[in-house]
Structure formats: structure tokens, C-alpha cells
């Protein structure tokens, strides 16, 4: 039986729901905006006060549901440090874009690429109470940035595949359905930081690395 205070458990459950839901819409938005899947395999849905595109392709939906269920477990156990969406050249396997979502959990520190899960970078933890409306507005701002990404990201003039990478605590066991992977960085790429959002439990900082036309 868990000894975690009821109020803390409830807050963690609600915050985790927000983060998992955001990840789902963010991944769908990137896959749509970057043309990884054909536009006709997406349908428009109203969320966060804006229109978002969500896949209607059965196999992709099933895959994302399974991934997000695992992400939910990691978040509830405070094990998830980063979720990364990699877009790679389907022919060569070279990474062309890398969308990273850093996860900072109440009382912990954000872990950056290349750092051990137990290392802290000295950033402050979240202490400010947030209203539901404020959280939704912050999430909306990130989704809007993803939607607008086509205005600054290079054209993907090749067939691309995607992969989701999860960074967890070193103590966290690797699930049977997952396998170890290298970071899949963008070689000689450019990095752009996006907006962030936070609940009183989690803070998510987003960014994208991409290969320029002359790289």
C-alpha cells in the first residue's frame, strides 16, 4: 500500500495526465507538420482552444497509445527525464530533426543530453501554483510553435521515418518492448529552444535540433 499523501497522489495523477496528453498532441503535430505521414491520414480536432491534427492511421495510433501508456508509468514513478522525437532519413538513417522535451519533476532537476540521470544542472524546481487555464495557455503556445515550425525549418525533401526515445533514471528497468539506443543527435545541426509549460508537479521544456540546407 502506498504511503504517499492523498493530495500529493492526486496532484501527480492530474499533472501526469496533462503531460501525457501534451506529448500525444505534440508528436502528432510534428508528424503532420513535417510531412512524415500523408495529410489525409490526419483529422482535425479542437484542443487547447486551437485546432490540432491527430492521426487516424490505425497502426500509428496503436503505437502511440502503447508508448504513452509507458510514458504515463514513468511519469507516475518520477522516472522520466526526457522524451525525444527523432526524424531520420528513411534511406540513410541519418537524423535530420530531433525534437526534445525535457521533463523536470517536482524536487528533481532537469537532465540534459549526455548527462547521467542522477546529475543535476542547478535549475530551480517548480513551486508556483498554476490554474488549469494557465496550464492550457502555456501548452497552446508550444503547439502553436510546432504548427508554425514550417516557417523556419528546412523543407524535408526526402522520405523520413520517426522514432521515440525516452531518457529515464538509471535505476529504471528497460521494458521488454523497448531497447537501448544511441542519442541520435543531428550532426552539425542548429538548435532552437521553444516555449515551456509547467504544472505544480512537472515542467516541460521543448526544443528542436535540425540539419540546415548547407550542413
From TrEMBL:
InterPro entries: HORMA_dom (IPR003511), HORMA_dom_sf (IPR036570), Mad2-like (IPR045091). It holds the Pfam family HORMA. It is found in: Nucleus. Residues 13-208 form the HORMA domain. SUPFAM superfamilies: The spindle assembly checkpoint protein mad2. GO terms for cellular component: cytoplasm; kinetochore; nucleoplasm. GO terms for biological process: cell division; mitotic spindle assembly checkpoint signaling. Gene3D superfamilies: HORMA domain. Keywords: Cell cycle, Cell division, DNA-binding, Mitosis, Nucleus. GO terms for molecular function: DNA binding. Belongs to the MAD2 family. This is DNA-binding HORMA. It comes from Ostreococcus tauri.
Amino acid at each position: 500500500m502506498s504511503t504517499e499523501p492523498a493530495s500529493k497522489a492526486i496532484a501527480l495523477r492530474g499533472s501526469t495526465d496533462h503531460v501525457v496528453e501534451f506529448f500525444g498532441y505534440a508528436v502528432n503535430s510534428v508528424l503532420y507538420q513535417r510531412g512524415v505521414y500523408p495529410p489525409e491520414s490526419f483529422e482535425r480536432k479542437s484542443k487547447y482552444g486551437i485546432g490540432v491534427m491527430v492521426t487516424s492511421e490505425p497502426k500509428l495510433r496503436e503505437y502511440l497509445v502503447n508508448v504513452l501508456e509507458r510514458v504515463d508509468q514513468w511519469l507516475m514513478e518520477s522516472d522520466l527525464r526526457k522524451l525525444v522525437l527523432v526524424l531520420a532519413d528513411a534511406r540513410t538513417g541519418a537524423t535530420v530533426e530531433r525534437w526534445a522535451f525535457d521533463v523536470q519533476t517536482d524536487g528533481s532537476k532537469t537532465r540534459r543530453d549526455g548527462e547521467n540521470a542522477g546529475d543535476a544542472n542547478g535549475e530551480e524546481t517548480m513551486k508556483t501554483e498554476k490554474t488549469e487555464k494557465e496550464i492550457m495557455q502555456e501548452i497552446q503556445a508550444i503547439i502553436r510553435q510546432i504548427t508554425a515550425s514550417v516557417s523556419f525549418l528546412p523543407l524535408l525533401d526526402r522520405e523520413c521515418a520517426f522514432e521515440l526515445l525516452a531518457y529515464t533514471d538509471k535505476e529504471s528497468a528497460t521494458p521488454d518492448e523497448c531497447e537501448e539506443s544511441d542519442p541520435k543527435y543531428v550532426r552539425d545541426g542548429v538548435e532552437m529552444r521553444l516555449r515551456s509549460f509547467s504544472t505544480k508537479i512537472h515542467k516541460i521544456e521543448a526544443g528542436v535540433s535540425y540539419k540546415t540546407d548547407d550542413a
